[in-house]
Amino acid sequence: MTGEPAAQVAERRPRRWRWRSIDTVVLLGFLGLAVLVLGRLWADPNGRVLDGNDDDHGIFLFMLAHAERVVFDGAAPFVTDRFNVPVGVNMMANTSILALALPLAPLTHFLGGGVTVALLITGGLAGTAFAWYWVLSRHLLESRLAAWIGGLWCGFAPAMISHAAGHVNFVNNYVLPFIVWQVLRLAEPGRVRRGGIVLGLLIVLQIFINEEALLFTALTLGVFAVAWAAMARDEARRVWRHFTAGIGVAALTSGVLLAYPLWYQFFGPGNYHGQPFRPTDYVTDLASLGAFPRQSVAGSEAIAQRLSVSATEDNTFFGPAGLVMILVAAVVLWRSVALRATTIAGLVLLLMSFGPKLRVAGQDTGIPLPFGLISHVPVIDLVSVTRFAMVPATVAGVLLAFAADRIRRRRRLFWIGMVLALVPLAPKPLPVVQGIPMPEFLTAGTWRQYVPEGRTLVTVPLPDVTSGRTGQRWATLNNLDYPTPRGYFMGPARPPFDDTGSWSAPHTYTSRLLLNVQMYNRPPVAVDRAAVLADLAYWRAAVVVLVPGVRNGDLLRTVLVGALGEPQWVGGVEIWRVPPEE
Q1: Which residues cross the membrane (predicted)?
Q2: Is 118 in contact with 126 (CB distance < 8 Å)?
């Protein structure tokens, strides 16, 4: 391919739709690698928690529990009143993964949300790898080995392994290669209506898996289209009419189906605008491009911590040889206009991931970057900036696959480089920690005797981001059978005065008191018992349960005794009954 768009190349070569034995081998290989990565979690999926980001592991348990209630109890899909009582949570404004969680609701119901999380992450890694292998081998490449390399990279790149430590939505990317392929095929004559409708339906499906990844894909394809049209003007003039018409059909198809869900997301109760952090807080470090990721066999936790914002945001980390081979692939393929445009799109998104100012080796250089001009644009302001780097990570896999397919000269040297690039990046099993087990009070259903309809069960520490992960986990593993206040989710910070995005509900006297005691070891001089009782009434609390074994648990107990009196010991935990408000 020297200058043609990918769709034109696919049109002139025979399609190979028949399933072959090698495809089975590739699929099983990807699945085996994914199981290896998630092996420690599979050993006890409902009892263990991913250590890289246990907070986000908990939030996806919440999404699965909500979907279980939609299927088994007829709950509304776009909102829940079982979490953050009495306000509830706008599920469309959160990463509710409904397209994944609803079909798997029976698994969540009978085996527990932990099993579903393990299955989704395992299937996400393997499925994304195989989806890219399928598109590359069926439509774009001659060599299945090259397609396997592309799939392996796109499914198990350092960015994917990093997000697998807690982000269920960001590893289930198997719809994206088909969206890309359908967009490219719109350049073919006669595909305006059929191709546009298919693309629109794929967009709807992706919206209910991961909107952020769809945004990245749309931006990348937009940059690709502009760059390709500028370099292949004659071809662009021939295809732009039916291409844009196909995009219009896709927009109409998806717009009709998504009108209400997106309205609810951005304008319904519990909507928010912006993120609870500045764009400069979560950006890609330039030095991370050539470093090894922490979860690779050659990785260093200490180095990765310095160059990355968290264990689930190692979005580059190509390794020295990997970075060199990506550059080599770009040079080898530069004569192809389509692949040159692909490279440009990847570089533009990489530049966006650096944020408003360049950071190098953990140090802010103060050098301004273009992202500063668009950081406050609506929708863009909802994105974690460093995640733009997931695009060049995928583009790298595509370039490596095409280079492996096209390389003619110095083949031996190229393949030596590929081995040196890929082997050090081989992923290690993700680390896990043992969660605090649920007490008999919950597992035996004893709580039902204490929580009448319309009342809540309050765990202390309160369900919240970081500080109350056990309470949130217990509630979600029970599929939200008992409602609970607060929790880790995205919502407005202080409605109606401030609708900036926040990771939890607005604080009350009691929530701030318990947070200061648990996290900062700050016992109060005196406890305002009336304020505590007012908060419990607001939360419709029927019983308060102290989670055993938590940080500063003795101090928390002292505060609860001061406000509520001595507890009862029931089913392995200390509880305080809260009388109904008169």
Answers
A1: 21-43, 110-133, 145-165, 192-209, 215-231, 243-263, 317-334, 341-359, 379-401, 413-430
A2: no
Helix pair angle (390-406, 211-231), 10° resolution:
50
**Contact between residue 265 and residue 79 where contact means Cβ atoms under 8 Å apart:** no
Cα 221 → chain centroid: 20
pLDDT for res 339:
97
Nearest CA among 105, 120, 99, 104 for reference residue 41 = 120
Q: Bridge partners of 460?
A: 546
Q: What is the mean pLDDT of each run of 10 residues along the chain (582 residues)?
A: 44 58 96 98 98 94 98 97 97 96 98 98 98 96 96 98 97 98 93 96 98 96 97 94 96 98 96 84 95 95 93 96 97 96 98 95 93 86 91 98 89 94 97 97 97 97 92 97 97 92 95 95 91 97 97 96 96 95 62
Q: What distance lies between CA 16 and its chain's CA centroid?
A: 33
Choose among 547, 560, 474, 469: nearest CA to 514: 560
The secondary structure of 46-113 as a DSSP string is: TTEEESS-HHHHHHHHHHHHHHHHHHHH---TTEESSBSTTT-EESTTTT--HHHHTTTHHHHHHH-H
Alpha helices in 138-294 (DSSP H): 144-156, 158-163, 168-171, 176-185, 192-207, 211-231, 233-267
Helices 54-73 & 113-135 angle (0-180, nearest 10): 100
The predicted model scores a pTM of: 0.94
**Sign, Cα dihedral of 181, 182, 185, 186:** negative
Q: Which residues of 294-320 are buried (b: 16+ CB within 10 A; e: fewer)?
A: bbbeebeeebbeebbbbbbbbbbbbbe
At 269, phi and psi to the nearest 5?
A: -55, 135
Q: What are residue 255's DSSP bridge partners?
A: none
CB atoms within 10 A of CB 412: 7
Q: What is the DSSP letter of 334?
A: T
- The pLDDT value given to residue 582: 53
Domain ranges of the chain: 20-46+112-425, 440-577
AA identity, residue 28 = L
Q: In what order do the strands lie in the sheet with 573-577?
A: 456-460, 541-546, 573-577, 568-570
Q: What is the token pair recorded at 276?
A: 């609870």
